[in-house]
Amino acid sequence: MPTVTYTPEEDGWVRGQSNVSHAEAVAGNGSFANDNRGNTAYVSAAGNFFCSRTYYRFDTTAIPTSATASSAFVEIETAGARGGTMDAVEVHKLFASSDNSSSIGAGLYQTITTTTSTTGTDIGNTFDVTFQLVIDVHLLAYLNTQIAAGAKPAFLLRNKGDYDVATEGNPTGVNTRAFDGTAAGTAPFISITYTTPSVSADNATFFGANF
Amino acid sequence: MAFTTERELFEHYSDDTITHNNIDDLILDWIDTLLLKDNDGNLYTEETLKDSLKAYYSDIDDWSF
Fold first, then answer.
1. Residue A202 pLDDT > 70, yes or no?
2. What are B's interface residues with A at a Cβ cutoff of 8 A?
3. Of B29, B41, B52, the CB nearest to A46
4. Facing residue for B33 by CB, picked from A50, A173, A178
5. Considering only CB atoms, which chain B residues are within 8 Å of A83?
């Protein structure tokens, strides 16, 4: 089974904010973007709540459309940590983005879909450490749909204070995690192991009989 | 989380990517890397973020900045 890796065709962090609640920041539209770097934020500062997500898009179209990914992950390296050590800012999941063509901009913030990995990853509070964000179950099915269509997969990385704001509620203070992007440090990448349909036994016999 | 000294607060918020042990460096890091903006799209100022810290961490009485 071949395994291939790709660095992002597009990456950067996008952010929404609200002066009412973190839930409103999560649900609202984006207002800011920063290209080629990774960040997730669970922040309350000076009367505003800030939520950041990191967008990754990979050009996987060199993979045959007949292929099926059996496993995949996105590897990231942490670049900084600020504030709390609670799940809200440390546990992360990848979600499928509904936009796989736009350049980094605030509009990508609210392109999250309900398609996500089952497995979350706790990235802790140290930096210069690599983590593998597992693409499994429903998100693996999404990846396979994109491969079959010859389309590029796109993801948004979210912390638990974002995707589970109903449980985590409003943050206190500045809590963020930063990740290397394609502009600096160790670039993130996606790793995909896939299979392709094998030549059937009937065809092998046919060719064998004729040659 | 209760802090009673500025140093404790600094250590909570920083890793060794910030090399000086004072809140000013931390504030500048937030301004430079997080690029927090107000509702009009203007970057938060150093003073705004300092005032925000003071409001959160009222147990600290030795603010040196």
1. no
2. 1, 12-15, 17, 29-30, 33-39, 41, 44, 48-49, 51-53, 56
3. B52
4. A178
5. 12-13
Domain with A100 in it: 3-197
pLDDT(A209) > 70 = no
Mutation pick from B15, B30, B38, B60 vs chain A, by most beta carbons of A within 10 Å, is B15
Residue B38, SS3? coil
Give the torsion sign (CA, B47, B48, B50, B51). Answer: positive
3-state secondary structure of A162: helix
**pTM (whole model) above 0.95:** no
Whether A210 has a pLDDT exceeding 80, the answer reads no
pLDDT digits (tens, 9 = 90+) for B39-65: 899 999 999 999 999 988 999 988 875
Residue A208 pLDDT: 47
| Residue A113: its H or E element | strand A112-116
pLDDT grade, residue A203 (50/70/90)?
Answer: low
Position A132 scores a pLDDT of: 97
Count CA within 13 A, CB hemisphere, residue B49: 22
Counting the structural domains of chain A, the total is 1
Note whether residue A62 is domain-resident: yes
Q: What is the ipTM of this complex?
A: 0.92
Closest CA to A153 of A109, A105, A191, A197: A191
Which of B13, B14, B34 shows the shortest C-beta gap to A41? B34
Cβ-Cβ contacts under 8 Å, A172 against chain B: 1, 56
The domains of chain B are located at: 22-65
- The whole-number pLDDT of residue B19 equals 83
Closest by alpha carbon to B38, among A120, B29, A13, B47? B47
